[in-house]
Amino acid sequence: MSLLDVLLSNIKLEQAGQVQLESVTESLYKQNLNLSERNKTLSLLRAIDEIVLQVNDVNDVAQGVVSAISSMGEFPLVTMIVGRKGSPYAVSIASAVDSADPKIDELKDILNSLKVGHSCKCLLSQVLVNGGELVSAGLQDVLHDETRAKTKRWQEIMGLAVVFVCPLIVREKVIGILLIGSKNQLADMSEHRSNLIGRLAEVVGISMDNTLLHQEIKESEGRLRRANAHLRELDIAKDEFISMASHQLRTPLTTIKGYLSMLEEGDAGEITESQKEFVDYAFSASERMVGLIADLLNTSRLTTGKFVIDYVDCEAVSMVEDEIRQLKSHATTKGIDLIYKKPRFKSLPVVIDEAKTRQVVMNYIDNAIYYTQHGSVTVELTKDDHNFSVRVTDTGIGVPKSSAKQLFTKFFRADNAQQIRPDGTGLGLYLAKRVVEDQGGRVIFNSEEGKGSIFGFELPIRPKGGAK
After folding, report:
1. Side by side, which strands form the sheet with 135-137?
2. 51 and 152: one domain?
3. Cβ(438)–Cβ(454) under 8 Å?
């Protein structure tokens, strides 16, 4: 091979090497550019996530998001338009315009006050109603007709090539629009950058939807708090009224009971059997009224924190027999057998709140008589070494299974009970449970609809801890 051939061969190798080097260099440049774009995108998406996590106000989140997008340098104009709940319009809630030129101030004002209705005949309205893919357009196609003469100048000042109109779609519903003004046409963008526009609409849509939901929840919580505060005020006013009215009713009712008792005992002269029967009815009715007033007062005291257990020495046998004696005429009038299973013991000294416990015994027996249409009501008093129990068993209407869990709650009454006694308050069993449990006892309850019920309680013979 001649020297010339060798030189020509070396030249060809050098040229091939140069071409290969340029190809490798170009490939590395593209890879670095692609990597840089990916890093910018990840940084932007991370910034949007941080804004959403740290800020709760919708307007603040929107402004933070559009500012983050604008700060990339490629998008000198970003505006977010979001629909308002209950409003036929979507309005601009955040804008970012990367230009200090005073000629752009009017554009900033326009972007900050954009208002789009479903009935508007414009590009924004079409996207808001129909959703679909993002649309690229000139600034003059986005703004109102009267500003079109100025849009060319604004585009030149900011170097805008195109405005992307991106629907914010969440759960197949358009919640707003993201306007992104770009310095490059879509065809001139890298594949990665063009994909970013669509991805931004998706990420921003989800972010704004979450923020709107969070704000709606906060607003709902605020309304609930205000409503609850108002209800508490009404409840306090109601309790004060009940307390005042009950106190005012108790005095004349005590007088009525006293005079009825005197009539029955003959202090005003002898009365006939029929007259005595009427007096008994009136006395029994006044007794029930006393019980109702006591229930109302105790309910009021529970709410105001004035419900106190007042322990005294008491004779349990006498207490139960007294209540049975007072309700005997009520049972006789209804044709119900009121049976008392006398205990083997003749006396049972206990330490309890006698007045409140008497009310519980009276309530149980009175209810059993009322809700028993035929048959009997049986009262039983038992004891062991530490506790005593009172059980009232009836053959009445019973309690439906669906009502059993709510039976001892305030103002609740089972449907079948309301049909027989529509004037009941739903306070007796609620108060009975509190009286028993506040004395360290437990309520006894068992029932089958249509076959009868057992209501009762078990209390310590002496309070736990020796309280008195």
Report:
1. 115-117, 89-97, 77-83, 173-182, 162-170, 135-137
2. yes
3. no
Q: How many CA atoms lie within 13 A of 375 on its CB side?
A: 18
Q: What totals of helices (H) and strands (E) does the chain contain, helices first?
A: 13, 13
The residue out of 163, 190, 217 marking a domain boundary is: 217
Using a 10 angstrom Cβ sphere, with 0-12 exposed, 13-18 middle and 19 or more buried, the burial of residue 365 is buried
CA–CA dist 50, 115 (Å, integer): 28
CA quadruple 206, 208, 210, 212: dihedral positive or negative?
negative
Ramachandran angles phi, psi of 250, nearest 5°: -65, -35
pTM over 0.90: no
**What string of DSSP letters covers 331-373?**
HHHHT-EEEEE--S-S--EEEE-HHHHHHHHHHHHHHHHHT-S
Structurally, the chain folds into a number of domains equal to: 2
- Which residues span the domain enclosing 379? 308-466
* d(C-alpha 253, C-alpha 258), whole Å: 9
Model confidence over 243-273: pLDDT tens digits? Answer: 666 666 777 877 888 888 888 888 888 888 8
The domain that holds 49 is classified in CATH as: 3.30.450.40
